[in-house]
Amino acid sequence: MKFSDFLAKTLLADTDWLVGYDENGKYIRVPKSALGIGAGASGGGGSATVAVQYSANSESWHDSYTAGDNYMRIKAGGGAWSGAIRLCVSAYDIWLRQGNSGSEADFLASLKGEDGEGADIGSLQLSDIGGYTEFLKQVNTTLANAKDAILAEVTETAVREVMNQYKELQMEDFKEVRSLSDDDYITIVTADGLRKVKLDNLASNVAVRNVSIDSLAKSVDNQLSQIYLNGEQDGKNVTFTTASAFMAGTSHLFLNGQRLVAGTDYTENNGRSVTLLNYTPEASDNITLIAVKK
Predict the structure, then answer these.
(1) How far apart are CA 76 and CA 42, in angstroms?
(2) pTM, 2 dp
(3) Distance CA 163, CA 228 (A)
(4) How far apart are CA 208 and CA 202, in angstroms?
(5) DSSP for 41-92?
(6) N or C: which end of the chain has fewer CB within 10 A?
(7) Max Cα-Cα span within the chain
(8) Chunked in runs of 10, what are the mean pLDDT values of the chain (294 residues)?
(9) Contact 195/207 with Cβ under 8 angstroms?
């Protein structure tokens, strides 16, 4: 039963309840039987009259409900008034108290505000979004770790592949050696470095006749060896000395797995150091030198 319907009643039916809050603020429902209404309530067999009064502050009472009333009290017949019962007030009732007027549909319609204007996100940057900066930091850290692992693997693979080409090979393993002619060339190591000599001139070539067997054996044993570099990788230094001397013109320098071009990307310095021309290595960079040791 709606409260507005209850206000129009002066008598409680057998199925009616009174609802509200007690003095402690606890919600209560009061059945008709608890009010002492019925036989004996007025000394007879009929129903006693129930009086209802209303109040805004539970102190000043009046008979008719008016906007702003928060409490009610009742009495049956000539009995005493009940304590103040706080009314169940709906949001619609509060809306009416604020000076508004209209039906419940009008009240519901008033809850919807005006449509807002579309948000301008033309100048919005990704960095303005909460958590994006931290997300980028995590991505950069992951990529940096992955880069180091990839570069290390690429460098190791490159060195291994180069070295495997010459590992445990004998002269008879090369088919070309068994079918050389006077018009073919052979590359030998002299005191001045590598030299390409035509086979028909081999006997008359002074540099070839004077080549040391020990030097030739040492060159074959150490051909394309990895040579360790010494020097600070601090973003400033570009010259790196070698742990051992190498033959001029035999160097293969790799930066982060990429082979550099001698004379364009770096220079050899008397077989004892190399100088980068276009890049200053950082601590995280990987530099590998492969050359023929002296």
Answers:
(1) 8
(2) 0.29
(3) 16
(4) 7
(5) TSSSSSPPPEEEEEESSSSS-BSS--TT--EEEEEETTSPPPPPEE----HH
(6) N
(7) 153
(8) 52 70 71 56 51 88 83 84 80 80 87 72 63 72 75 75 63 54 73 74 51 56 78 94 89 91 93 93 92 84
(9) yes
